[in-house]
Amino acid sequence: MVSLNEVVARMDLELQTGSVTDYPGAMNGLQLANAGKIGRIVAAVDASLPVIEAAAEGGPGLLIVHHGMFWQGVQPVTGPFYRKLKLAMDAGLAVYSSHLPLDVHPELGNNILLARAIGVQNTEPFFNQKGLCIGIRGEWDGTRGALLTGLQTALAGPVHLCPGGPDLVSRVGIITGGAGSEVIRVAASGVDTFITGEGPHWSYPLAEELGLNVFYGGHYATETAGVKALAAAMANLFEIPWSFLDHPTGL
Question: Same structural domain for residues 92 and 17?
């Protein structure tokens, strides 16, 4: 058993949690405490009721998620929200959430891990939003088809392609999650290919008009790597076991 506060402090420092601007509902950091000790770490993408039900088995621990419990803002502690809080508290399960701080981390982040998995070279921060670059761009030398195959392998699932740009890919931008609505700004940045998780229907025909390839890899699928990497790093540092709880949405 190790100190919850020590693990949380180490993650806050590593992720620069207090200095990364995010959506109000993200509420990055420790969202639910326990009695102060943890013996294991569980990683998951979403702090949903089914995830917490599964994670609560096994005794006191820490659940690390990308999407936390407060995206809907202020809400009454009733129904499913009450049930997942009670389940976690009864089990001694603490909950830590990291959204944009984990997306943009240069070693543990969703963006950089996906870029490395498909062989993007010479990466640099990309797509400034309110003073924070929330994506990565870099160089990739190959065909659109080869990149599709590489993405499907990296994400272990289907990837939807809008072939609006050149067949030979050279400049790739990556923003994991739900950034498909940003195709105009992405195209204006000079990349010929954009990789994201999901987007609205209109982003596809608009990308065609803009001459931009877009790969929609799935919101969930593009955001599993970061929580795994963070959990593994903390488990190794504090010498406790960790596991990944896979609960895909298909979106």
Answer: yes
